[in-house]
Amino acid sequence: METLTIAVDARGVARITMTRPEVFNAFNELMISELSQAVQHAQADPAVRVLVLAGAGKAFSAGADIEWMRRAAAASQEANLADARRFAEMLQRLAACPKPTVARIQGLALGGGVGLACACDIALASREAKFAVSEARFGILPAVIGPYLVNAVGLRQARRLALTASRIGADEALQLGLLQQVVDTPDDLDLALDAWVSELLACGPGAQAEIKALMGQLEVGPVTPEVRELTAQTIARVRSGDEAREGFAAFVGKRPAAWIHGKN
Fold first, then answer.
1. What is the pLDDT of residue 71?
2. CA–CA separation, 171 vs 10, rounded Å?
3. Residue 61 pairs with which residues in a beta bridge?
4. Which of 204, 223, 224, 202 is CA-nearest to residue 212?
5. HEC readout, the chain
6. pLDDT 10s digits, 191-204
7. How many Cα neighbours within 13 Å face the side chain of 118?
C-alpha cells in the first residue's frame, strides 16, 4: 500500500499506520480506499485478534487532505456523493469490525482524524495531543463523522465541538469520552497500548464480536420488550457455544483459556 503500513505481531495485533507524515497523515481518496482494504483484510485474517490504528510522525491525522477537498469542491454533486459514500463505508467498516480496535493518538487529530478516533472502540492519546472538529472553518460540516462523534461524546457536546471548531486538549477529550486514557508523553503511548492489548487478548474473541454486534443495535433509552428479547436470545445462544464452555472450564480448572496467546 502507498499510504499505509500493516504489521501483524505474534500475538495477533495488527498495527495499521498511516504514513503521510509530510501532510500530518491527512487522508485523500487513496488513503480512504487503503484504510478500508486494510480493515477488511485484518477482519478476514483469523490470526488477527486486535487492530491498532496509528499515525506516523508528529500527528495522528489532520483529517481530510485540503487538495482532496478542493478537487471535491470542483466536482459534480454526483461525484461528491460517490466520494462521500466511500468515506462513510470506510468509517463504518472500522466501527463495525468484529475485532477490537484501538486508536493510538499523538499530536493532532482534526476533522476526519477525530472521526477515526471515534469509530474505534478505544482511543488513547498523549497529553500534548490536540483535537478539533474543524470542518466549519472551511465552510463545510462534519456530516460523515457526525454519528460517530455523537456516539462518543453525546449530542450536545458534539454540536458544540462542530459549531465552534475549537481545539481542545487531551484532558478535555478524556473528560468528554472521546478518549479512554491520556498518558504523559508520546513515548508512553506504546506501554499504555500494550496494557490495553493485554486486556483485550485475555477475553474471548467470539464474545468480543458478539459484544460489538449487540451494542451496535442498542440505543440509550427505554429497555423495550424488543430489546429485552434481543438480549435474552443473544445470551442464550452464546452461552451454549464452544467458547463459553471453554471459558467456564478454564475458570473452574484455574487455567488460562485456550484463546490466550501462548496458553493451552
1. 84
2. 33
3. 109
4. 204
5. CCCEEEEECCCCEEEEEECCHHHCCCECHHHHHHHHHHHHHHHHCCCCCEEEEEECCCCCECCECHHHHHHHHHCCHHHHHHHHHHHHHHHHHHHHCCCCEEEEECCEEECHHHHHHHHCCEEEEECCCEEECCHHHHCCCCCCCHHHHHHHHCHHHHHHHHHHCCCEEHHHHHHHCCCCEEECCHHHHHHHHHHHHHHHHCCCHHHHHHHHHHHCCCCCCCCCHHHHHHHHHHHHHHHCCHHHHHHHHHHHCCCCCCCCCCCC
6. 999 999 999 999 99
7. 30
Q: 69 pLDDT band (50/70/90 cuts)?
A: confident
CB 213 within 8 A of CB 235: no
Q: How far apart are CA 153 and CA 173, in angstroms?
A: 9
Query: Which residues are known to be catalytic?
Result: 135
Longest CA span, the chain: 65
Q: What is the pTM of this model?
A: 0.95
How many whole angstroms separate alpha carbon 149 and alpha carbon 151?
A: 5
Place of cell 429497555: 223
- Residue 18 is predicted with a pLDDT of 98
Backbone angles phi, psi at 22, to 5 degrees: -65, -20
Mean pLDDT of 209-219: 95
| Lookup: cell for 192 | 499504555
The span from the CA of 243 to the CA of 259, in Å, is 9
Could you tell me if 179 and 119 are in contact, meaning their C-beta atoms sit under 8 angstroms apart?
no
The residue with cell 478516533 is: 117
pLDDT of 261 reads: 62
